[in-house]
From TrEMBL:
It holds the Pfam family HD_5. The keyword Lipid biosynthesis does not apply. PANTHER family: CYCLIC DI-GMP PHOSPHODIESTERASE TM_0186-RELATED (PTHR45228), CYCLIC DI-GMP PHOSPHODIESTERASE VC_1348-RELATED (PTHR45228:SF5). This is HD domain-containing protein.
Length: 463
């Protein structure tokens, strides 16, 4: 009858242990060490219950196989019964999370473990801790009490560690710790007093179950508190984000206005009305959108790229600030040295862009702006300046800017020339395909010639 009761208890312990083990994976535990050692404890207790069942099944039958299985099961049971206590102690150590007396606590565990395993390894030959007679019946060894003394030492070691850190232990943790320390020991005392009943596994199972339930309660309370705090923080963060976004938009508007004003100032030096920067900005946007819709350069032409390109376009001639007025405003043909001075504006434009924008703008936008300022006079066949880049060596933003800049120069009046007609300008652009300009960019520019002409017309001043 007692055997059936013990087997039933152990079976329940295994079942509850498996449920706990699986449940641990579905719960969030902040401390990974606590979670890890909790799983170790539960698994050891499951194995210990399984070995307890094996000892009861194999005991009392003098079968050759049972004579092997019973000693093996008993040996493993003693191992697991010790290790579940060690795992419980380490679990509590990580649960408390305090360093005081931690080193001493672990050293006692190490020494006790060495002594226990020496005794356990000698037991099959000396009957030190337990004895199995010729009838395959288990009984306690003559020095069985030493195992109990070691367990008492381990519990005292744990109690000392807890007391050393008592000021750091919250009230919520006290009940869980007491359950861990006291309940398995109460079950063991009952088992010692009433020989034949197996309650140690049940003691640990109840302790584990209690800890799991308490941890879930604490977690739910913590999550509710965190959720309330997050709601408050989210509301505060949304307000801050709105303020930042509003400030950012104001800053971008101010920056764009400053850049456009600076670009207009540079253009006005050679007696252009300053509308050149606005017209070219409109041309590059129309052209870039047209190319993106038709699937050209999909890795480069994105809405983000086009947005940066539109903002960067007014800066394409910023380098002209270094060219003397007498050259910019000269009505006649430039001499070779004068043209060399004009050519300086491309490389200087890239340098100025970095001086103005580095550290204050998105790096991608800065690179697009610098590429436009530096390379919008490069030519597809490699005869342009300042670096004589060829083909797709020229950044796409500069290839787009080149057509917009040339087209606007052709159809706009200058101090040294009258404006061309749109048809003449488009013919020149078309004739430059593959030599001056990227053929793909030319093709798409000509596809939207009416839109480009309309942009130019919209900026003309009515007398």
């Amino acid at each position: 009858m007692m055997t059936i009761t013990n087997v039933t208890l152990d079976a329940y312990n295994i079942l509850i242990g498996l449920i706990l083990f699986v449940s641990i994976y579905t719960r969030h535990i902040v401390n990974d060490n606590v979670k890890r050692w909790f799983k170790v404890m539960v698994m050891i207790n499951i194995l210990m219950a399984a070995m307890d069942i094996c000892t009861m099944v194999f005991e009392g039958t003098a079968h050759p196989i049972y004579s092997i299985l019973l000693p093996a099961s008993m040996f493993l049971f003693y191992i697991f019964s010790y290790f579940v206590l060690i795992a419980a102690g380490i679990e509590i150590m990580f649960f408390i999370k305090q360093e005081k007396f931690k080193k001493g606590f672990l050293n006692v565990i190490k020494v006790a473990t060495v002594i226990y395993f020496i005794l356990l390894l000698l037991t099959p030959f000396t009957n030190f801790l337990y004895e199995i007679d010729e009838n395959n019946v288990y009984s306690r060894g003559k020095y069985f009490f030493i195992a109990l003394v070691i367990q008492v030492i381990l519990y005292l070691n744990l109690i000392i560690y807890i007391l050393a850190n008592r000021k750091s232990i919250s009230r919520a943790k006290v009940g869980v710790i007491l359950m861990f320390v006291l309940f398995p020991q109460i079950m063991q005392v009952i088992q010692l007093l009433f020989y034949g009943i197996s309650l140690i596994n049940t003691g640990f199972t109840v302790a584990f179950l209690t800890m799991f339930i308490q941890s879930n309660r604490d977690l739910e309370k913590s999550l509710n508190y965190i959720e309330d705090e997050l709601d408050i923080k989210e509301s505060e963060l949304n307000e801050k984000v709105s303020e930042i976004e509003s400030s950012k938009l104001q800053f971008i508007k101010m920056q764009n206005h400053t850049i456009e004003s600076l670009s207009n100032l540079v253009e006005n030096r050679d007696e252009d009305t300053g509308e050149h920067v606005r017209r070219t900005r409109a041309y590059v946007e129309l052209l870039a959108v047209q190319m993106m819709k038709n699937g050209h350069y999909p890795d480069v032409l994105t809405p983000r790229f086009i947005r940066f390109l539109k903002r960067a376009a007014p800066m394409h001639d910023i380098g002209k600030i270094v060219v003397p007025d007498e050259i910019l405003k000269k009505p006649g043909r430039l001499t070779k040295p004068e043209f060399e001075q004009i050519k300086r504006h491309a490389a200087e434009g890239g340098r100025i862009v970095h001086e103005i924008l580095d550290g204050y703008e998105d790096p991608e936008y800065i690179q697009i702006t610098a590429d436009i300022a530096t390379h919008h006079h490069e030519k597809w066949d490699g005869t342009g300046y300042p670096e004589e880049l060829k083909g797709e060596e020229i950044p796409l933003c500069a290839r787009i800017m080149a057509i917009a800049d040339v087209f606007d120069a052709l159809v706009s009046p200058r101090i040294y020339k009258s404006p061309m007609s749109y048809d003449e300008a488009f013919q020149i652009i078309e004739s430059g395909s593959g030599t001056h300009f990227d053929p793909i960019v030319v093709k798409e520019f000509l596809e939207i010639r009416e839109k480009n002409a309309a942009v130019n017309e919209s900026f003309k001043v009515i007398p």
